[in-house]
Amino acid sequence: MSKTLLFSASALFLVSAIWNSIEYWPSKPQIYTEPSPAAKIIYTLAPSIYDPPEEVFFERYSGLGEVPIIRPSIILGPHCRKAMFLGPGTEAHLYSRSLCNMSESSASQVLSLFASRFSSEPHASFLVSPQAIDEMMVIAARGEIYLPSSNPSFKQFLDETWATPEKWGAWSTSSTAYIRFKAPDVLGPLIVDIDYTAFLAGSHEALTIIPSINGHDRSPIVAKPNNIPSNMVITISVNELKERDGVIEISFNLDHPMSPSQLGISPDGRLLGIGLTKLTFR
To answer: What pLDDT does 166 receive?
Structure first.
């Protein structure tokens, strides 16, 4: 091992150890279905240096919670860089907290084909290149309505700034949340209908949302209180569709998201901002 690689690995483990000691301090509630910040760093920046126990990887990254391991299956880790096949068997189903904006069908087909070489193994880890992730980016379909449980669902448009979608929708869990996709065509403007609700409770009475298209801010939106269903309509011009080779990034900058634990509602420490319930392109 080269000195540079050894130093990088040592530094990474040191940062991970410090972060884990803070994140998993004894007084903090332990959550077995949430990945630690240190694990996210390792599996994103240096996914080849550590292979975790299969039950840990399944609990943290399948998005299914504390349930028995499903076999055969493929589990994707943070930012989809590390994957684990849990076998033996063929026709493995893909599970993940985020699809990193990959098409559900493309990711399932490609990763299942890749994992087929391990079909007789109880488990095996493999890496997914950033280039492969980019090539499988989802293309928005005009006239399509995407729901949390539809097939395909809106999960493929979300990244790790969102919680794992539930039956009703998905919460944003960061001060900035992102939706990414490739434009279906440049024949005319693309209209994006976004149905959502806002997390406002207790003393947390206001939330301002600033949508942005590829870094260009739109007018601020003041969220409605009391979980009132809301809708925002974003029109993306032909010129914007042509930028970045057709890749569109919609960001939602949230002025002050809060967690249920900060408000004394529950132990949930996630910063909840908006809850996405439906996504429509036309």
So the answer is: 94
- The pLDDT, as a whole number, for residue 217 is 97
Among the listed residues 98, 208, 116, the one whose alpha carbon sits nearest the alpha carbon of residue 162:
98
- Give the pLDDT score at 5: 44
Query: What's phi and psi for 60, nearest 5 deg?
Result: -75, -35
* CATH number, span 145-281: 2.60.120.260
* DSSP code at position 166: -
Q: Contact, 182 vs 140, CB < 8 A? A: yes
Q: What sign for the dihedral angle of Cα 128, 133, 138, 139?
A: negative
Q: pTM for this one? A: 0.82
Count of C-beta atoms within a 10 Å radius of residue 75: 27
Distance of CA 228 to the CA centre of its chain: 25
Percent of the chain with pLDDT over 90: 73
CA–CA dist 209, 90 (Å, integer): 45
How do the domains of the chain map onto residue ranges? 3-135, 145-281
Name, in order, each residue with C-beta under 8 angstroms of 245's C-beta and a sequence gap of 6 or more.
Answer: none
User: Is residue 107 scored above 80 in pLDDT?
Assistant: yes
Compute CA distances 276 → 9, 144, 176, 202, 205, whole Å: 38, 16, 14, 21, 19
The number of CA neighbours under 13 Å toward the Cβ of 115 is 31
List, for residues 269-282, the tens digit of each pLDDT value.
999 999 999 999 99
